Each structure stands twice: as structure tokens, then as C-alpha cells.
Amino acid sequence: GPxxxxxxxxxxxxxxxxxxxxENKDVIAAVEDLVATGSRTTEIxxxxxxxxxxxxxxxxxxxxxxxxxxxxxxxxxxVGAExxxxxxxxxxxxxxxxxxxxxxxxVSNExxxxxxxxxxxxxxxxxLQLGGNKVGAKxxxxxxxxxxxxxxxxxxxxxxxxVGAExxx
Length: 169
Fold this sequence. Notes:
There is one protein chain. The chain is an alpha/beta fold. The protein has helices at residues 5-22, 25-35, 53-63, 81-91, 109-119, 137-149; strands at 43-45, 71-73, 99-101, 127-129, 155-157. Strands 1-2-3-4-5 form a 5-stranded parallel beta sheet, with no helix packed on it. Strand 4 (127-129), helix 6 and strand 5 form a beta-alpha-beta unit. Helix 5 (109-119) packs parallel to helix 6. The longest helix has 18 residues, at 5-22. The radius of gyration is 15 Å and the shape is globular. The N and C termini lie far apart (46 Å).
């Protein structure tokens, strides 16, 4: 609530420290933007910027307190299960993000499972792009199950993922 300013500042400091550790200037700039007091940033474009699990973790930490971001483009990076898991954790509390673009990364069944878990309680996300990842039948099944509980998601893309490869049965 309103008395939680200290917690927010602490989280902001954590997010910036995590971002600095990645030495990825694009991630650092994005995180600084997101944790700035009164941030009005609605879209972050980080396609093909070499964002890895640590970068995704820093962004996730920032998303826990940010209330303005609506669109996060992370396509064509190196975000794996760990990074997807961190973003999933953030989605459990974030209420502004509407589009999460994670196409062509290293998101596996494990990462998809974590995102599925978050979708059971998240009420703001409208679009989740996971095409071109290594999400198999298990991850797709977890996401499908989450959709029975989720009321806000309108678009879930797994195009080009390995769903059929392991046999859907």
C-alpha cells in the first residue's frame, strides 16, 4: 500500500544491481526507466539485444514494482527457463503488463510451466508470445490448463514450438 515506499526503493535498488551485473547497456537502460519514480514508460523494446536469464531477472525485479509498462518485447534473445521463471514470478504481482513477447528464446517446458502457474492468478496479460521456443507437449499442456482459470489472456502463440514433436498424447 501507500506506506510501502521503502520496499519499492529496495526493490528498485535490487533491480538496478541485477541489471548492472549483466553489463548489457540495453537492459540497464530499460530497468532504470522502469524503476524511475513516476515512470510512465508503456513499452520496452529489447528484441535481439542479447538479453539472457540474468537480464530477464533484472527486468522481472523491476516489473514487481512498476505500474506503467504494458508491452515488453523480448523476442530473439537468450531467455531460458530461469529467466522465464523470474518473469512468471513478476506476473503474479504485476497488474499493468498486457503483452509479453518471448518468441525465439530458450524457454523450455519448465519455463512454460512457470508462466502457466502465473497465468492462473494474473489478470492483466492479454498476449503471450512463445513461438519458436522449445516448449513441448508438457509445457503446452500446463498452459492449456492455466487458460481454464485465466480470464484475461486473448492470444497465446506457440507457433514454431516443438509441441507435436514429443507426441501430444
